Amino acid sequence: MSADSPTQQIENDSLEDRLYTVRYDDPGDSHLDVKVPEVCAECETNDCVKVCPANVWREGEDGVPQIAYENCLECSSCRFACGYDNVVWEYPKTGGGMTFKHG
Amino acid sequence: MTPELDTETRAAPNYDDQFDAIVVGAGLAGSAAALTMASRGLEVLIVERGSSPGAKNVFGGVLYTPTIRELTEFDDAPLERYVAERRFSMLSRDDETAVSLRPGEWHREPHNDSYTVLRGEFDEWFAEQAVEAGATLVTETTVTGLVRERGRIVGVETDRPDGTIRAPYVVLAEGGNSLVSEGANLKPTESRENVAVAVKEVLEFPDREGVIEDRFRLVDDAGVSYHYFGEGAVGDAFGGGFIYTNEETVSVGVAYRIEDAVAADQSPEETLNAFKTHPAVAPLVRDARTVEYSAKTIPEGGAESVPDLVHDGGVIVGDAAGLVLNNGVHLEGTNMAVESGYHAARAIARAADRGRTDAAALRAYPEALEQSFVVQNLERYAWLMDAVEADRDLLFEELPRAFADAGTEYFRMDRQPKEVHADDAKDVVLDALGGWTGAAKLALRYRKVVT
Ligand SMILES: Cc1cc2nc3c(=O)[nH]c(=O)nc-3n(C[C@H](O)[C@H](O)[C@H](O)COP(=O)(O)OP(=O)(O)OC[C@H]3O[C@@H](n4cnc5c(N)ncnc54)[C@H](O)[C@@H]3O)c2cc1C
Ligand code: SF4
Ligand code: SF4
Where is the FAD-binding domain positioned along the sequence (chain B) (predicted)? Predict the structure, then answer.
């Protein structure tokens, strides 16, 4: 079939706008971390970065990811994705973190 | 050293005596369990980490309600639409081949017990039913671990000051991100081949009265459940895309294995964008405003991943126990969550009547579950994931393309007789399948999905 069937323009929001749709209460400190930074420095796959739907995990200069925890949608994907079981994943304290209005 | 005493003669554990049972998580499984236990006269505490039940929860989705209908005043439930059409659609890069079901029966009560809902509202309502039956609900409180005495589960630790609460029974209804169960070594962390990452948007159509009814051919509170497979939905990953209609909004999303997500060259968000841009999908979701973006995981290890469901003083229910059926044709977890919570609660009520808390006294729960559709369905489809994995290129890429091409051939409008077109169409499909033998083998392999 022809590669250029008419596509309708879809205006997808930027990730930033998407994250604005979710209410966030900052629990004050990160509920995410890495267990052993050296493991990340050696890790070449960065699967935590690849799987995250909210750009929380970002490649850091020393090979250890930066964690923008306040973007987190608490989906838990990074916890399963890391092939080295190197993700520290806790729930934000006393109900903090994100709240979905619709779900 | 204290001498080992057997269960019956050992001193009774120290419970606070305020509650008979603690439920971890006010999702579907937790509220079903709490409601059932409270109706049988037990003092129940539900601990939920969100600011209200549902505040942290998201699904597709279609709620399957045969059991909830029995447990509640169902007419008051906050439902969006009943499912009047189910559509299964194969997408190649720019083709669609679909099968749609619109049985007349689904328009009539009880609508095949399938309704779209939004979890924020629904879970809050469902937990309220448990509270009305006598359960106590605390929110914004996270269970951080179990309290054990000589192995027996006797309570929970929470992140509140003086947050230890004791009770004879603990129901672990914490969902697929089961940190408490895993932390207590009641189950291993699921491997990433058995967990899907899902992203979803809820879309609104400002100032466009009737747009959902028009686009999806709906009247009144009828709604649709559309499932999409193949390259155009989630690339070469194992999973799919979905569209569900709510009353005033549309839910659109993708879900696919984490194992494939980390191998893909696009993020889950980009996969969602690509799906929404597919020429067969875009007209359904265009000109919308995103009112929510969300993400969650789905445990999909099937029957083999279900851990031991009963322990001394505790049970595991719902997604925490891996009770989700996701085989492409069916994505069902809500009914299994409710059913497991219900059976676990009944087993606890009966054990409580006899003053027992040991695992053996709670075995009525897994036994009832095995007799129910939950385990029967999980086991029935256990083989499917392996088969699909082995045939994935064929199923998700080659076949969708072949069907689209075959359709194009079959209906081709030129000056050749129809017979030529039919032969061409057949050839395209047979080519993809590896001839008649390949087709026969494939049909044999998958016949159990539909029979
Ligand atoms: C994208 C997506 C689409 C889906 N679509 C469908 C569908 O269309 N149809 C269908 O039938 N199923 C669907 N499912 C599956 C379905 O959503 C689940 O099977 C179901 O929600 C499981 O219910 P649950 O009560 O076991 O867990 P959950 O609904 O996850 O509830 C767990 C609850 O426990 C709370 N909690 C967790 N940990 C703690 C803690 N430590 N302390 C206190 N509280 C805690 C959570 O906040 C939550 O309220 C879908 C799932 C996803 C992710
Ligand atoms: S995938 Fe695991 S080991 Fe690799 S960078 Fe991420 S957290 Fe570190
Ligand atoms: S839980 Fe989900 S959103 Fe949060 S950091 Fe992990 S992958 Fe990203």
Answer: 20-367
Confidence of residue A7 (pLDDT cuts 50, 70, 90): low
Strand partners of residue A98: A24
B32 and B135 fall within a common domain: yes
ipTM score: 0.94
How far is the CA of B40 from the CAs of B134, B167, B350, B450, in angstroms? Answer: 10, 17, 9, 39
Nearest to B268 by CA among B288, B294, B247, B306: B294
Positive or negative, the CA dihedral B295, B300, B301, B307 is positive
- Report the CATH number that the domain containing residue B212 is assigned in CATH: 3.30.9.90
CA–centroid distance, B447 to ligand 3, in Å, is: 38
Nearest CA in chain A to B189: A80
Query: pTM of this prediction?
Result: 0.91
Cα A14 from chain centroid? 15
The per-residue pLDDT for B3 is 43
Domain that holds residue B251: 192-299
Give the amino acid at B108: R
Name the 3-class secondary structure at B83.
Answer: strand
* pLDDT < 70: residue spans in chain B: 1-12, 385, 449-451
B337 lines ligand 1 (CB under 6 A): yes
